[in-house]
Amino acid sequence: MRKNDRLNMQTKKNRHYPCKKQMMPVFCALAGVLMGTAGGVTVWASENDVQESGLTAEQYQQVLEDLTSEIRWAGTEGEQNAAEKIAEKFQNYGLEVEQQKFSFTEQAEGKQNSNEATNVIGVKKANKNSNGDILIVSAHHDSKECTVGANDNASGEAMLLELARVMQNVDTDTEIRFVSFSAEEEGLKGSSYYVNNLSQEEKDHIIGDIQIDMIGHYKSTGSQVMTAFGNEELLGQMLIEAAGQNGTWQSGHAADSDHASFSFEGIPAVLVEQNAELGEVENHKFTDNNKIIDADKAVETGKVVESVLQSIASEETGSLLEQAKEMTATETAVPVTDETPILIGAAKTDVDVKFGASGTLEKEDESEMGYQQAHYVIKTKWFDWEPLITDFVFREYDDGIAPTLDRVFIRTSSLGLSDEELGEKLTEALGEPEVYDGGEPLWGSSSMKENPSNRQYMIEEYDGEQVIEVIAFMHSNVGEDINSYEFGKSSEEYADTADKADLALLETVHKMIPEDDPYVKNIVSWTDGYSYVLGFCTADEVQKSDSFSIRIDKNDFFDADGNFRNVGNFLVTAVHEYAHALTLNADQLNAPAEMEDTADYNDISLYKDTSYMKAFYDQFYADGKQREFYENPEDYVSDYAGLSGIFEDIAESFMQFVLSDRQDGDSLAAAKINFFYDYPEMTAKRDYIRQNFGYE
Q1: What is the 3-state secondary structure (H, E, C) of 74-100?
Q2: pLDDT at 617
Q3: What's the CA angle centered on 449, arms 446 and 452, to 5 degrees?
Q4: What residues have CB less than 8 Å from 194, skipping those under 6 apart?
């Protein structure tokens, strides 16, 4: 079973199944100029004032390789070494440097031997007629446990350092802060600490943050500018304008990087990232190494950012503060759509990132069930109504476990409506309510087929005020089969009965699994709503293990018209699940007829001596070869592989074998991926998938 990787940054659970905008409007520009404002009047910095870029692919590649010489998991020696390197480079570029230490919680044991990490701040003071503006350019230097994180995010960190280098001798009337955050992968901890420790005067003078995270993937087709709330920001407009007429820069909505920490505090912020359908295949995995970075593509993105920095630095541009603040203030409510997960039972850090806001702690109290809870309030926009305050109530624990989402309420008393009038308003937005067992009316269908966001709405009273309670499924061991399709039949045979999303699912699976595969018998269109579980594979009858069903969450990967949401995540999920059918079938098992339905697939005695699993075990597990994950995460291809036992380890390794090149080095993780090259039938499956999905 696979779960959404970004969502589950903190989740370390054992699984029980053999699974798992169009361009923003911009100011009219005269030909050959860059945008700026002064005294409330739009003016332009001439191209003559912008120095020729000193960014080169060769220099960028050198910095990237230096950063990726070791794993930079927050709280480890590798992360601290990276912080020291970054500080040294900032000093060499004439910046005022501070290493900002901070503590964070929820760290694992082992290699992550400290709960302290380091932000590195390099300040380029205004040296020409300071206008008081502050511009922040940022990236994060930490990686996940199992990877050197070349794309996520040495790619952005290397560009941050290169921008500091090429800007070192540029005169500026704006203070430019180059900030390298740590513990982004632990829930935006470093950037949250930095923002929370800014003085009000500093916050009042920041025109914005440009966060650079994941650029230059070899499969990327350009770059994009994202904002936490999906609103327009001045810096985003400037970046898209500076990108010119090539049409590759787009805008959108994302809150899963450090820019969100600024946005949550009302400070303008944008995220610059690559635009790549397959750009997250390697994310948070061993295969996120230098092989997947195209330095020329990264530098192309960096030059656009540099041109904006030079324009802002120019005296001719003047102060942008008033305009930047005005644009940010026009839209501060978090938009909530059917695709916004409400993850009851999820850790707060996960909820913050996925929802797009962290909220303000209003109070802590005791629930009617006797446990402590914390109330965070967020200004939100539901159903295209006017902005309303939403309460996210988190359950708190005493043993260091992160608070988890318990209940959600939309405060509606400000609308001044009676319960009956509010019900009419909900009916207009969601359709007629249903009433169960003589209880209160519930708006929103209980069927996951019709309501993939998995939530209902009920008018309640909470703390003496009228509210709408958002009722969502607990995200654990839930989900529903929608339709099951025989793998042996083509998608055309279901054209009259399957919807567009299911047809797209079937067509895509057939591109991934050869039609003569003897094990996969059924493809099940399944859902637990948006996010969380992405798919899983099960034997239709364990005692035979000759027929497998692969369930894929259609709502995570396809819209109603059958368009892909994320090709990369689909491949990561579906190839992993296919690996289970290849390694857990009757031809691999000793005596499936004697197996229990609850058999532990990590028990090596289940497998034949000629099986893939036995060979994998002998090479990587026998005689104590395999070390504990948190002590030696570099032995594993991903955290999921390291925390779920050998049957998930081999599936993750197969997935990375298919979706990446042969791995260099003598590490155990590299050897696990290269293991499959010894099997011609596995290489043939790799070639089939890669050819059908546009890999070289």
Answers
A1: CCCHHHHHHHHHHHHHHHHCCCEEEEE
A2: 97
A3: 80
A4: 100, 119, 121, 179, 181, 261
